[in-house]
Amino acid sequence: MNEWGFGGGFDALPPTEGGEQFDIELVGPHLRVGGRISLGRFSRLSDRVNHGNGYLRLSDARLLKRNGEPTSLVVPELWVNPDEVTFLAITRTPDVTPVPGALRSPEYIAKQIRRFLVFTPGHVITGLVHVFPGMSVAGIVEGQDPRFLPLTNVSARSLADRRVISRFDLLLVNRTQMTAASITDEPLTSASGEPGGVEVEAPIVES
Question: Could you tell me the domains of the chain?
């Protein structure tokens, strides 16, 4: 079972209610909050965020300080406009048992793992992006799908206070909040030594 989890089998539920839950941290220009998000009938967090309609619903939401420390303000339910979200990241992954009939992607998709640098109005973010072989920086940043681009093994440094650095296993950055970006390494090569794709389990890729 992949650590990002599987859901599915929730046809009787609203599209974004029920299902597996993830503890996440959500950051925007004027908001930093932690809470829990449900996948509903979706199999991955990226699908829930990119293909769910309307506002993002967080349960047990706690307002955080700029450095990520918790405040005393907690609400049982918070609805957040995705247009105002710079990025969201998983802070805890649940133990998940696969559900028969779950909506899931093919087991493997050939991708290259590249080190990606992203600037947003409030952060500089570095992490690994999983892209199709030969994809350029322009192809990544000028694409419109998915709206929230997944990165793994991420470091996010605050531009307002560069001493504040947050680290996440998985982060989804809003393309509309990206002000600059670059690939900072060479592509991985195949076993033959030729540039090529790396077989990566689709749920890890979060594409």
Answer: 21-92 (2.30.30.100), 108-205 (2.30.30.100)
